[in-house]
Amino acid sequence: MMLAALITGAGVIQIREFPEPSPAAGCVVVDVGYCGICGTDVHAYVSGRVYRPAICGHEWTGTVSAIGTGVVAVQEGDRVVVGVPPACGLCSACVDGSGAHCAVCVSVLHGRDPDAPPHGGFAARIAVNASRVVSAHSNLDDETLAQVEPVAVALHAVNRSALRFGDVAVVLGAGPVGLTVMQCAFSAGARDVVVVEPNVFRQALASELGATSVCSIEAAADIVADHTRGIGANVVYDCVGGTESLTASVGLARRGGSVSMIGLKDDLISIDSATWLRKEITTVSAIGYVRHEVEAAMDLLADGVVRVDQLHTSTTNIEGLAATFAELASGASNQMKVLVKPTWSS
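User: That's the sequence. What structure does it adopt?
Assistant: Structure tokens below.
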């Protein structure tokens, strides 16, 4: 038997026993090296909403320890990162030319595919379909590989936005996603990126990672005006979520600008539709990523274009998971990206 941690309710982390995974046909078993704690993991812990076991710990990396029949893309001993399959080419979305919204890939992202495991990466081993793993970049260490998935999420958000070379962008929220979105925006050609963040520790981190300006929400309008001759930002990335941040995002965008919704909250959002209409705001949302963005994220990390070493603030094990989640949920922590090494102290 094997132990794995699951979020099973508001403020509840349970350690459960599972049979040792074995690879079915077309599947692999991965010995998990590290698994990052995602903001959606923390939201599920706080809210107690139903959270599918397969995505409870979905930012993992590890080493293939067993392969099922028919698997040829990877071998035992290969280092891999978690990803999504290539677009299936057969579902309605694919046939309609929208492979980025392939029904198979969406089901995998939400842990609803037929091969979805009964737990996520907060476990020593995990069995998944071989199409879900991506061969690791040879120049990246395991701690960096455990942060590839959130970088792919940030890259996907920038790819979906209307950012063009020379644009001025604003990022609301300097958490791990916000700071990787900032770096991906620069890599996509942004001239300036203004980061809006109230926490002093995160403000300093944003400056260290290259933000053009860092400010509080109260100062944001004036700072953005200084960078845009009073016009407003071309693109605003809302990495916080909720009515307040979305309203601020629209306020900081120029007429004809765009707002990218990335941050996720369970609350309903209210908008001032008249302002959106008068400013002709284009809105785009982004969740997850597509297959090639995992490989692109690794290239950005290997080339030093995106840096995540500064985001990795601590590592815990399974025994420390409950206390770590409680700290992250408190709202008073300076933790950024916490990695989980699925081991036990004794």
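The chain has twelve helices and 15 strands.
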